[in-house]
Amino acid sequence: MSPTLRVVHVLRGAQGGSFRHLCDLAKAQADSGAHVGIVSSTGVGGAATDAAFEALGPHCVLGVHRIPIKRTPGWSDVLAVRAIEGVLREARPDIVHGHGAKGAAYARLAAPRVGAKAVYTPHGGSLHYSWSSASGAVVLGLERALKRRTHGMIFASDYARRAYERKLGAPPSPCSVIHNGLHDEEFEPVPTGEAEYDFVFVGELRLLKGIEVLVDAVVELQEERQVSVLMVGAGPDEARLRERIGELGLTRSITLSPPIQPARDAF
Fold first, then answer.
1. What φ, ψ does residue 64 adopt, rounded to 5°?
2. pLDDT tens, the chain, 267 aa long
3. Taken in order 164, 169, 170, 172, is the CA torsion positive or negative?
4. For residue 2, with 0-12 CB atoms within 10 Å meaning exposed, 13-18 middle and 19 or more buried, which class applies?
5. Residues 6+ away with beta carbon under 8 Å from 113
6. Which residue among 3, 7, 186, 224 is the one 20 to 30 A from 261 at the CA level?
7. In Å, how far are 12, 53, 182, 223, 235 from 68, measured between CA atoms?
8. What are the distances in angstroms from CA 221 to CA 210, 214, 224, 225, 242?
């Protein structure tokens, strides 16, 4: 009888698609018989994220651990890595799976100290940066330095794999592309009835998601007919988005809503 696989996932930003990916993966691994644990940041995602972590609890034999993790690099990262190393020493994982740039950096720094292998799944993050900018050179330089500590990579799309190869060269071996999936019930038709909005956006409120492009498109559409948009989500650029909507006089056309889970309820 083979020993039970022990996996600890490390993620900073517990919201959006990367968090959905983590939740699905942790449950599936637990259902397959693995012992699973999670380390993530405090103060991210609000009540909806807290409820999601509480629901994950019964699936995580190795525990759900929340520690302070800041988005930007700094001295606080030293304390975060030490805290994660403490969790890992108690959990004794075979694999530490880092999600996103911050989560993967922590995973690859801490895993060797506890005799575990480090696996990395990018979720945008550092792949959005360019070598041509000072900040991009720093972030991508750190990624390149951590390649030797990476025992394998899983990409959620072929686009992400190609972006990694273009900016950082061939990924460590082994490497796989495993697409994010949907549950069967999510393919059930959504009752429409009397539609309250013409368009719905669901996602993190960050400029790189193209949210300002959507707002500008509404301005052009308004020249032909009145349209309404529901934008569901939260993120670091929410204040800027609200300001932009106000400047363009679209406060009656665009409604902002905090995250709705599951997203199907928003649709």
1. -115, 115
2. 458 999 999 998 766 778 888 888 999 999 999 999 999 988 776 777 888 888 888 999 999 999 888 877 778 888 889 999 999 999 999 999 999 888 899 999 999 999 999 999 988 788 888 898 888 898 889 889 999 999 999 998 899 999 999 999 998 889 999 887 778 888 888 877 777 899 999 988 888 888 999 999 999 999 889 999 999 988 889 999 999 999 999 999 999 998 887 788 888
3. negative
4. exposed
5. 85, 88
6. 7
7. 9, 15, 30, 47, 17
8. 17, 10, 6, 6, 19
Of 165, 166, 168, the residue nearest 147 (C-alpha): 168
From CA 14, how far away is CA 261, in angstroms rounded? 13
d(CA 79, CA 107): 14
Q: Which helix (H) or strand (E) holds 176?
A: strand 175-177
User: What would the two tokens of residue 90 be?
Assistant: 């108690």
